[in-house]
User: Fold this.
Amino acid sequence: MTVVGIGADGWDGLTGAARAALREAEVVVGGARQLGLLPAECGAQRVVWPSPLRPAVPGVLAAHADRRVAVLASGDPLFYGIGRALTEELGAERLRVLPHPSSVAYACARLGWPVEDTEVVTAVGRPVARLAAALHDGRRVLVLSAGAGTPAEVAELLRDRGFGPSRMSVLERLGGAEERRVEGTAQTWPHPAGDALNVVGVECRWDGVTPRLGAVPGLPDGAYESDGQLTKRHVRAATLGALAPAPGELLWDVGGGSGSVGVEWMRTHPSCRAVAVERDAERAGRIARNAERLGVPGLRVVRGTAPEALAGLPVPDAVFVGGGLTTPGLLDACWDALPAGGRLVANTVTLESEALLAERYRRHGGDLVRLAVAHAVPVGGFTGWRQAMPVTQWAVVKSPRPSGELPA
Ligand SMILES: C[S@@+](CC[C@H](N)C(=O)[O-])C[C@H]1O[C@@H](n2cnc3c(N)ncnc32)[C@H](O)[C@@H]1O
Assistant:
C-alpha cells in the first residue's frame, strides 16, 4: 500500500513517484476534499473514509485487501495523520509512504523559523489548553488549528496566562492559491474568523507581571488553586526528582489533593500521562482545574477512595502516595500494581504513617529521607526561620524479587 501526502496545491504539487502511485492504483482512499484534487486521468475507484475515521480503518483496508491501494493523506502522512493508523493496522513494512511538506514545514518556511527551534502543539481533537505548558518567553510555538475558531481561542489563552504581548501569525490554506496570512498580537485579537484550514504561529512574549512558570518541577505554590492540601514547592521538587518521569510514562498520583504532583509529572514531556485518585469531590474538581490551567488537560481524575478506586486503572510506571497511607490495603495495592522496575514514592507528615514507611523500608530497601524546609520570616525587626512540618519520604524501585521477601 502506498500512502501519498498531498497539499493544497493538489496534483500540481505532487512528485513523479506520487503521481505514478496514484495512476497505478486500483483503489484510492481519502477524504472527500483530497479525492476531489485528483484529475480524471486517475481512473481508480475512489473511496471516501467514513466518519469517525479511526474505527473504520480496519474494515476499509479489509474490503480492498487484494487490490492495489493508494491512500491520500494531507501533507506528511506520519505527522498527526492517517499514517499512524495505517502503521498500527498493517505494520510499517507493508507501507510505502511518500511525504509532502507538512503544515509545519510550510509555516516555518513562511515565517523563517528553523523547524528544530519550533514547538508544535496540536489543537486537532485535543484541547487548546495544552498550549499553556509550552509558553516560555522568547519561544516560538506553532498551533495546528482545529478550525476557524482556534486563533481566537489561542489569543484568549495567551492573554489569560500572561502572554498577551505575544505576536500571532495565522497562516491559512498553506501552499494553495488562496494562501493568506493574518498578523496581530494576542492582546489586540480578535480578527474576524478566517479559514478553517490554518496554523497559528506564536512568538511568546511574557508580560513580566503574571507569575513566571519554569520548565522544571517545583512551580511556585501560588501557581495552584488549593485548599492547603498541596505538596509544597521544595518537597514537590524533591518528589518529582525521586519519581523520575521519562517520556511516555504513566503515574498514579494517589491522594491527589490539588493535583500538583501529577501536573508536574505531565509537564515534563507532552507524552507523559497521569491519573490522580482523590476521594474528595471538591478537590477532584480542583485537580482538573489546575491541570487545565497549567497546560495538562489530559490528566485523568478518578474521584474515589483508594485502594478500591485503583481497580482497573492502566499499569503505572510510577506511583506517588500523597495521602491515605494508613487506609488499610492502600500501600499494598499500590505496590502490587507496580511492575518490576517501577518506582514508588510516598510522603507523610504523621508518625503513624512514618512507622509504616519505616517497616516497608526495612523490607524493600530504597531511600528513606526526612525533608525539613524552613523559610526566613520577619521576627520583630530581624529575620528568623519558620520551620515547616518535616516530611518523611520513602522512595523505592521495585525489584523483580517477590514482594514480602526480605532483602539479602
Ligand atoms: C496532602 S494531600 C496531597 C497533596 C498533593 N500531593 C498535592 O500536591 O496537591 C492528601 C490527599 O489525599 C486524599 N486521600 C486521603 N486518603 C485517600 C484515599 N484512601 N483515597 C483517595 N484519596 C485519599 C485527601 O483527600 C487529600 O486530598
Observations:
- The first strand starts at residue 2 and ends at 6.
- The chain has a mean pLDDT of 95.
